[in-house]
Every structure is written in C-alpha cells, then in structure tokens.
Amino acid sequence: MYRPRAGNPHKVVMSLGGMYEYDNTIFDDAVIPDGMDKTQLITTILAECGENETRCSNPFVLKKMIENFFFTREYKYSKLWESTQLDYDPLENYNLTIEVSRGTQGQDKTKRTVESESTTEGSNENQRSAFDSVSYQPNEKDTGSSTVKGGVSENETFDTTRNEAEQRHEFGDNSARSSMDNIRQQRAIVDFNIYQVIALEFEDQITIPVYDRMYTNIFEGGC
Fold first, then answer.
1. d(CA 202, CA 73)
2. 164 has which bridge partners?
3. To pair with 49 at 20 to 30 A between CA atoms, which of 2, 83, 97, 126?
C-alpha cells in the first residue's frame, strides 16, 4: 500500500491500488455508459496504473476527484461506447432510404346530348260514296301527320385524383477506396478498446504516471 517515492526515499506515498484496497468504494460514484461493465473497467484501470501514486492521498478527496473525472466526461465516453455498438457493413460507406411522393387532384367532366325527331304522315278514307253523288266520292277522308321529338342529355364526372409513393433503398461504397483500405480501417476499429482508453486517460488525470516521477516533485507535499 505504501512505498518510498522514487527520487525521494524518505517520502512515503500511497498507490492507487493501495487506496482501493484501503477503501474499495472510491469508484462507487463514477458514472459510466449504460452497458459497460464497471467491474471490468475498474480492473483495467488498476492494471494500467494501480502501482502509480495518486495525486491526492486523502481517500475522501480522491473519491470526489474520481467522481468528477467521470462526470465531466460522461458525454464523451457515452458516445465512444455507442460507436462500439453500431451494426454496419465494413464494405459500405453509405446506406440511404429515399421516399418520393407524387400527387395530382382534379375532375374530368363529360356532357353528351342526343336529339331525335320522327314524323308520321297518313290518311284514312271511308270508301262509301256519298248518297247524293253519281260518281264515286269518298264519304270521309282524314289526312294527318304527327311529329315526335326527343332528346337525351347525360353528364358524367370522373375523379382524376391520384397519389403515388415510391421508396428506394440505395447502399454500397461510392468512394475510391479499395476493399483492402476498408479492411485496414476495420482492423483499426476492432483494435479500439474503450476500457483501455478510459484507463489511460484516468492514469494521466488521477495518478502520477511512473515515467513522470523522475522529472517532477510538484506533488511531493500531497493534498
């Protein structure tokens, strides 16, 4: 837990691992992204810098420093964590769904008129001679004609409203990159370890890295 400070054997310091052994609640108030394993994160931090001297030897103050470290980086670490959870095709660099809607509205009207006319002419003659006539004379003769007119008018209305929707899915790689370029970038993504990224940043902010001890004594007095 305690050991002499490098370059100053008369100064005893406490390592991060020693502080955690003394008080294992120092990480309790650290807020990390949903889905991350807090135990795994603490283990990674202790593995990276557990032997380093803490910037403050007071456990209560150290706990607050750790809380503040994660609070001020909550957005950053959340976005980094989300980027490791994305599902994508490494050989594609765009994936679009395009929707197009077209519509017309109106009416077509049609009027149709049909007219007709028919005429009928005829006569009716009674063939009995008149009693006072020597030659034949019709007794009665009726002559007449009739005309019938008619018409039909029709109006038709057609609704010409039309709505059309089109959906198009486009995806692929529209860049000049080769498949090998994509594979190399994919390997870099796979190598990204958010637990280690946080641990290394934690080392710089909360502890005094080993490789800095021989160059500075500004933290010799503690806090």
1. 11
2. 102
3. 83
What is the spatial distance between Cα 38 and Cα 81, in angstroms, rounded to a whole number? 13
Tens-place pLDDT, residues 17-76: 999 999 999 999 999 999 999 999 999 999 999 999 999 989 999 999 999 999 999 999
What is the SS3 string spanning 33-63?
A: CCCCCHHHHHHHHHHHHCCCEECCCCHHHHH
Nearest-angstrom CA–CA distance, 52 and 209: 6
E strand or H helix at 71: helix 59-71
Which two structure tokens, joined as six digits, stand for 187? 């390997």
C-alpha distance from residue 204 to each of 58, 165, 199, 207 (Å): 18, 56, 9, 6
Closest CA to 46 of 192, 193, 194, 207: 207
- Percent of residues, the chain, with pLDDT higher than 70: 58
pTM of the model: 0.56
Specify the DSSP class assigned to residue 135.
S
Sign of the Cα pseudo-torsion (11, 70, 197, 36, in order): positive
